[in-house]
Automatic annotation (TrEMBL):
InterPro entries: Mediator_Med24
Protein source organism: Anopheles melas
UniProt similarity note: Belongs to the Mediator complex subunit 24 family.
Organism classification: Eukaryota, Metazoa, Ecdysozoa, Arthropoda, Hexapoda
Predominant subcellular localization, coarse grouping: nucleus
Protein name, entry field: Mediator of RNA polymerase II transcription subunit 24
Amino acid sequence: MIMDNSKTTSKTTLLKLMLLRAWKERWTDCQWGINVKTILTRGVSGDVYNLADAIIQQAVVGSGANMLFLSYLKHSLCAHLISHAAVLNRIAKYDQFDKHHCLIALLDFLKSIIDGVTCRGKQEEAILTKATVSLVHWLLQIYECVLQSYAEDSTLQPEEEEVVQRVAVVLERIVENPFLLGVLSIGKCDDPELFIALQKRFNGISNLTLTTGYVANVGGGNANSLTVTDCMRKLVLLEVDALEMRPFDGGKVEPITYSLQPLIAIEVLLNPMCDTHQYVAQLINLKRLKGFTYARLYCELMRGCLIALNNVEGTAKESLLCAFAFIKVPHILHQLHAKTNGAEQQDEATGATYSVEVLEAFDLLLQDTPVLDYMDMKCACNVVECLLKEMVKLQLLTDTHVKQLVALREPVTAGLHKLDANSAPLTMMLKFVFRVESPLAGILKALSTDCSKVQDALLAMLCQVLTGNSLDLVLSVASVEGKFKAFISGLLKCNDYAKQATTAEIGKAPTTRSALFDVSFMILASIAQSYGSDVILAEGGNSFFEKWVRDYMVERKKTKSPMTMVKQADPMVLEELIMAMNNSEGMYVGLKASSLRWEDICYTIPALVHQVLMAWESESIAPLEIKKMLDGLKAYFSTFAVCAASWLCAYMQMVRQDEQLKPMNMVQQLCSALAGPLADEWQQQDYCKERFGLMGQIVRRMQQEFLRTPQVNPKLRALFPSQQQQHVVSHLPLEEQFEEAWKAIAERGWLPIETTFLLDTLLQSCGPAWLVEKLIGKLFVCKYVRDLNKTMDIIFAIMHLDIERCTIALLSQLVPMMLLSKAQTPEIVDPQSRVLAKLCVYCIIVTMETSLTATKKRTRGTASSELEDLDALCTSAKLRKIELEGMGVGCTESATGGATGTEFSLDSALEPTASAWTTEAASNASLKEPLQSCLQTLFRTFAQHIATDELSPKVYFVFQFLSLLVESGRERIMCVLKLLPNGLVQSLLKINATDEMTVGLIL
């Protein structure tokens, strides 16, 4: 209300005169209330005329407080003539701390009104937040003044002790009042300068407390009660998440989690090059979402790996999962322990330190006897012992713990064969996984030196790797140990060195170098097939092989133009190749006689094969001549056969079905064994069988990738029944494929390997919206809460196939459709709506986390710099630091909104966890597109459903969604909450005005 200044001044004077008259005539409270309304017109607050200021000023004129005036003040509050904000503001301005009786009276008055402080939406109540901060600052001033007096005299007067007791009571009332805590937290944002002063004041009190040793208790002064300093610390360090909130699931931690094993299967199988720091960030995020302890998280990680090993026997991913479980997991636990400052203790016998959480995790793991018994039987060894030995290497446990824990499993595993003596496939795999670390180190050392000096030894090492499944083992161990990039770099350097020779060279050295070129080329090609060409091209170089894989290698999901390859050939090289092909003694002899460089031949083979195929199509060349040409290529170099097969498979993808038969026959010929004099000549080459075996694997994979495409000639499929049995292509409808996949998951409760790849194929084929809709359909089929939570966990893990796209599909398409009651979507009702809300929130938080991690990853170079980035982020998270034993407290510029020159810092009361989502990251985080737009649209949909006063299942879903978002996200989710439309929470409060709408949630 805007009023004339002169009129306001005159009424203020009248009120002061009335106060003097009331005191002279000793008016009662009721008389005061009746008479003051003759001056205050209806609807006008006394705050306009500074009524509270006038009353308190008269009340504390003398050495003691005038209780009559204080009774008028209280009556004015009860009659709503003045506001609580005005009273608190005026009391906070009183600075005559030597008038102990006045202080005691004011503190007693505060004690009587503090629980009733409220805000009724009037204009003058807008200052309540700052007034509350000012009041707390005033209470700290009083206590500091008493401490200074104690420091001088080493004792307190009785009046001072009474002041301290009153301060303690008022502070305790504020700490126990959720509304005042909420108002205080808003006030800290409204007036950051005053909050800085508050922190400085507390810093001084902490120092005085340490110096003087004076401690004042609240709540009767018993031994277990809080001290005054503790109450102050709670107010200074107040965080929104310290306020009372009703836990979404009653605060219970789930007894069994079904999300970790599918998550491990997806990440390890589909993203084998994932760095350790990414696993660490992902696991910490999952721990926060689930409310696990670190010991429980470590246990679930090891348990999930053992379950994932259940069906890997005999598969191509057997070595990868074994290496991950027994080599990578200990490194993940070691980094988790280091980043989170995990608890450590010393072994009394040896003095070695160990991780308390890791030891507790093994105690929990040993309780899961069914999983351990099955895996011990399957591996014919004590799997716990295998894990423990790796933990000792990283100093997470000691040898004493190994003996104790192994002894607990010994009675069960006593009848099983030892690791060395057993020939079971999985047992042998475990044996080889542990033994391959040393050869890998030797290969890397040889690759890092000058290849010309060690080429014989290096060739022997690489060809030894080609025996059996040793290459898969080496690649698996290299990937989980973080040595994959070094291995690839060494191979590229080796291949570039070896290609410098020409076919005209003679002697032993060129022969060895030619074999080295052949072997290194095919190992790199095999890596590109298994792990994707991106792992090769990530090196950013311009070597021969990188150019070949970029422009000439046929790949899944990366279409290459066969005619572009043909056009890139050098006509002179092509002419010489044709001359070699037409050599009377065969192409093998013709190539040996030519002076062409091997890299030029590789680039020209597509043009040569194209001409031969066109000649066959026009029947100007006989099939026998084609066979001799192809045999000559693969007999000279297995690399040439790979180059020819790559072009033929790319060509088959571009032509009609009736034109695919002849090129496929050529591919088959490249895989067939050599015979006759050519075979005798070929067998004289170094390590010919090993090279030819790897070439056959590479060509067959290219063949299989082609057979996955829909345009394959049915006659070709009939020629490869074995590949059909390997599910290269499925004739079932997509929905039936999904049902088969879900049945396999539902029966087991975990994600099998083949199902992981099938779900990934369905995602790529049908898109995230289709897959998420099918998954949510399975969620709403469940009737019991236990089944709902289990299904939600599995769905959440499956969405990590592409968490961002699946989350966008869930929030932008499926949830809005369910809210708008589309006929094809299930109805949102409890308990399904509760679990759906949890799934949505989990996906939002993980998508934000993934987006931040991905951004960081793009800017990183080496593994060491990645760890440095994480260290820096974790260090910068400590915006506020407090030493609970009474040391100094303060805040940095970031936390205080622009403070300068402050020499103290506050640490938040949050646990000291290492994650990409830290306090600073959360406060400065901004949502990435398309998640931000998606959430804005979703929140607008929410606003449509709470526009009325009717409480419906859909409105309750909105409340559940927001409630869990706040509980799970805390400070990390602030950037999401900022997108809420104005009035959404207020409207929700009107509809769902229950005990669930706590102050903490609203804030």
